[in-house]
Amino acid sequence: MKVHCLGTTGYHPNDHRHTSCYFLPADGIVLDAGSGMFRLPPLIATDRLDILLSHAHLDHVIGLTYLHDILYTRPVQKVVVWGEAAKLKAVQEHLFHELIFPAPIKVVWEPIDDRKQIKIGVGGAVTAAWQHQQHPGGSVAYRLHWRKTNKTLVYATDTSGDLSPPSLQWMKGADLLMHECYFRDDAKQWAIKTGHSWTTRAAEVARDADVSRLVLTHINPLATGPDPVDLNLATSIFKNTQVASDGDVIEF
Ligand SMILES: [Zn+2]
Ligand SMILES: [Zn+2]
What we know:
By secondary structure, the protein is of the alpha/beta class.
């Protein structure tokens, strides 16, 4: 399984990172549609794309407006956009308002609200479950499972980091946890205030959910130095941790 990191920051892009977008080419699965989505075309390997939205904040949906160029460069037969009904409605009404972006996109909008899990990817090979997260306006985490290989990926972004037993149980034993870490510990108060995670919290989630590997995402765009999250601190809590960068390909 390969995850291509197309955009690894939140809020706004910087010189090295675009906003949240991750791609699994073999299954045509896109995790969030941030500004990094413009990087999709050369990687597309299927005739269907399933785009899973964590929520509708701009840094996670702006890339939907790039689909005209993406699909002009690399046409596919079907694009499905999954998310909570209220978020899909907000995107359709506001992001695609004729005064904001006057060219509608040809996608199928699929609300997840009434479904405990959905089948996505080519031939429905991947099962995706979701759970609510604490974040302004709410967001959802996704748990992807591949029947064939019995691999599990949890994508949890725009969350203050949930250490409750039900949430940890839901993430339990994932082969890969992609968890946001917008702030370092010294800005923990900002993390709590804005519904984001800090280094210790993200590492604790990985440790307590007993996952195999943690990749930190949604890195603060103002943290442009070589060590945006204090990686030593993270690895002192959960050893198998890395920080995602644009262009990374994570194999699991
Ligand atoms: Zn965000
Ligand atoms: Zn957000």
